[in-house]
Amino acid sequence: MRAKSAVALVIYLLMTPIFAADCESRLSQSEVDYGQLHRGAFPDQPLGQHWVNLDTHRLTLTVICQTPTPIKLRFNGTSAGPNVFRLGQQGQFSLRISDAVIDGSAAMLTRDTEPQPRAEQLFDAAQTIQSQRARHFTAQIDVQAQLDTRQLRIHDETLFEAAGTFELLHD
């Protein structure tokens, strides 16, 4: 009898304020747990397509400051390429920030490599995403995980993990 193979995916995300200003920051969840996925959960991919997208998980990022402070964020994780981070050996995940609200009004976001403001941005290793000064900042963070189906020939339960921290920076 052949054992069923299972994959458990967990992404740990932490919020770390990295400055002395009087701001408090938090994420609605510090862990994204995809639970156990069995081999049958991964449909056959069309020829040439090897990545399968898993459900998107949405988190809320909140920053509250005593005085208006420039909001500047960076995500520190193991890069797997442009705009993606490593998830175990057979996966990757991306982080999209959107729906930013500053002091009650919709806000635009910029990446340090793209001066044009946008309503949403993807995090990339060692780059920052910023907005204007705020006392109260909220945004949605969408976590999208992908697995390389060519590498999922597993026979026992296997845990795929990734860890990273959001940093709130000061100029």
How much β-strand is present in the residues? over 45%
Shape: elongated
- Our count of helices gives 0
Count of extended strands: 13
User: pLDDT under 50 segments (min length 5)?
Assistant: none
Largest sheet: 13 strands, mixed
3D structure, described in words:
This protein is mostly beta strands and 171 residues long. The chain contains no helices and 13 strands. Strands 1, 2, 3, 4, 5, 6, 7, 8, 9, 10, 11, 12 and 13 form a 13-stranded mixed sheet that branches. A hairpin with a 2-residue loop joins β9 and β10. It is elongated, with a radius of gyration of 18 Å. The termini are far apart. The model has no long low-confidence stretch (mean pLDDT 83).
Please render the helix and strand layout as text.
Elements: E1 6-17, E2 23-27, E3 31-38, E4 51-76, E5 79-81, E6 84-87, E7 91-102, E8 105-106, E9 109-111, E10 114-118, E11 121-122, E12 128-148, E13 158-169
Parallel strand pairs: 1-13
Antiparallel strand pairs: 1-3, 2-4, 4-12, 4-13, 5-6, 6-7, 7-8, 7-11, 7-12, 9-10, 9-12
Tags for this entry?
171 residues, mainly beta, 13-stranded mixed sheet
Question: What is the structure about, briefly put?
Answer:
The protein is mainly beta and 171 residues long. It is 0% helix and 67% strand.
